[in-house]
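ok posting inputs for the uracil job
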Amino acid sequence: MLLMAPTLNDRDALADILAFHVEAGVDVALGEEPVDRFAESAAERSSAASRMAAAPSGESSPHVPRAAAPSPAPRPATPAIAGEAPPPPDLAAVEAREAAANAPTLEVLEALLEKFDGCPLKHTATRLVFADGNPQARLMLVGEAPGRDEDIEGKPFVGRSGKLLDRMLAAIGIDRTGCYIANVVPWRPPGNRTPTPQETAICLPFIRRQIELANPDVLVCLGGPSAQTLLGIRDGITKARGRWMEYDTSSRVIPALATFHPAYLLRSPLGKRMVWRDMLAIEARLAGAPERAPD
Ligand code: URA
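and the output
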């Protein structure tokens, strides 16, 4: 078949369709060919219906005792590490907890996350976004989840909000060598959507262990979702920000502060005044906090 180069009109139509998909949040191609999932599930329903119709009539009657069906062979637990199909979310969370607890160093933790297949976001993200900055630093900041730029570069906060975060930190004399940065969820959710509670729960043991291993003197949660997940609060960020709380790393209790996410500040620059106060509070806390004993 002769493939014609698209005419101008074809190109315009294709560009319109592409723009529509991008606006609708489509940002990754999962396969070469489209798959009609509605047709698939309709076919499954109709084949289940024909199996029911073909079954001996007593089998579907609630009044006739069923012959004992052979019990299915027990399903082996699906390993979430380097497994084929992702395990069910509750099993994935248990396996995440076990894997994270056994990581003796940040390097091992990162390697475990690279192999961990229990979070579905891994399969749509380009790569793992583990951390940036200095793991020895006394200040650790944790955001929600990587965005598009982070997914491309493999480092947290490198896009527009990352540039603003750098300026916020520079205001108190800190650059990326003076802090350690990570996210609650280390894979980009498709279209930058909010991670689901299940995805967050699966990733939580890893970020908890990451904080414990980095062992900072001050923890800063960037935005409401990070604060709610890590500090267990229910307040929104407007109420929670600027208030010192405690975070138990499992090894010790450290001061923790929630502040506005830089992405919010890009949309609502008036919030910068309050973040400035939070940055000063962080600076003061770092100046007053006792130095960490060397590892
Ligand atoms: N927003 C986040 O929460 N984390 C990033 O790494 C980038 C944007």
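notes: Confidence is low (pLDDT under 50) at residues 1-6, 55-79. The two ends are 68 Å apart (CA to CA).
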